[in-house]
Amino acid sequence: MKREKSKSGGTKRPQAHAEAPVVADPAPSMHRSVDRTIGYPVFAQPQPTPDPTYFRVSHSNTSDDAAYKAIDALNAAHKLHALPFPKPRGGVEPRLTMNDVLGGNDAVVQDIVKAGQLVFHSTGDCGSTRGPKEQSAVTDKMVSDFNETRREEIPQFNFLLGDIVYSFGEVTYYYDQFYEPYRDYPAPILAVAGNHDGMVSPLAHAKSLEAFQRNFCAEAFAVTPEAGGLSRTAQIQPGVFFTFEAPFVRIIALYSNTLEDPGVIADANVGNSQLAFVEAALKRVKAEKYKGALLFLDHHPPYTVSRHGWSIQLQKQLDDLCDKIGVWPHAFLSGHAHNYQRFTRTRADGSQIPYVVCGNGGHNVQKLNISGLRAPQIIQNASRNANKIVLESYDDTNYGYLRVIVDDKQLRIEYHPATDGKDTKTPDDFVTVNLTTRILEHYVANDLGMPAAAAQVGALQKDQAKPKKGSRR
After folding, report:
1. How far apart are CA 65 and CA 133, in angstroms?
2. Are 338 and 365 contacting, i.e. CB atoms less than 8 angstroms apart?
3. Greatest extent of the chain over all pairs of C-alpha atoms, in Å
């Protein structure tokens, strides 16, 4: 178990309901012991507030040293295993819809369908132990994406890729590492759990995933004690794995457990409930002849060229199910490696699947394990038993996030570094998948008004060039 040393440290969218939101207290109220159920979702604060400059709860350089020493000893004795997790609500294939997370506000969903396009955010490893600076830079840039001239370009939700809170998913750090950084984010936030979200300190009297379940898998819209005086309600995911359905996209969210490496979705310790879930989800995709984008999301990346290893067994288990059912994802998003990496997997039938790692959401950017690596380049050749894998692009210097755009024909995944600033709308990297052919292609750009504006200018110039009555040229 490797540990990273830490240091001490818009335009707003209407909320899903018109009821008056809860007003924030000046400081987190950690003394509250019960959730405040309010029955409807609340997202951003009523008014934007300045970025914090320090953590309210100290996370010092040495606060986790004893716990990590105990974990290292267990790891050396081969006593670390994937941990069992709470059974999700909703049967074999737990489901959640965008309508659900909006509290039944179907008008928003219908507007997305009418506009013909869905946009959402994603990033991973956002919990920071150094202080709020880096994570605030990422969230500030994401919030700037809500300042758009066309409604269809506005993000509708954020799907985090794990490691929300470091180092052991502690309840006490949720305010500083999650609620405060996202206080001005005016849309629902969902998440897959990362290894640090499920990891339990040997010195703590806590259950694995206890804090994550309270804040992302609540049974009703409520403000938890971890939110302090902030307004955001807990998310109502049915569990740590589920299918999320939104216009134009279906997301299969998985829990890859608590080990540093590899990711685990099924084994003798945790059982096969996630495999049964994926099989049921894929069978439903096939039975319904679903034509939208299908995404897999988890925390541990199947492929990476950073210090973490490949999750080979996890990938094989999913491949076997996809092959069995005859349904494959259009893309696979992960975190865990604290940087940005994009791979293309070319299957034997010629179809291409982007595997995107975005684990630089705020926690200690890491360099790749090969200095000065040139991209693109092949990292695995095609063979009888393996597909060709190409590292297309990476960023191991900046913090950033993904902006995902999907319509009835294409899936586009953009990467935006926080250092580009709030006014930069052009991504540093991107990939586009044709939903029908499953081949990477050039993105068909949207008409956001420039041709019409140019036509108006041209007509005005033409009119001004006409001779006026009584004038001489």
Report:
1. 23
2. yes
3. 98
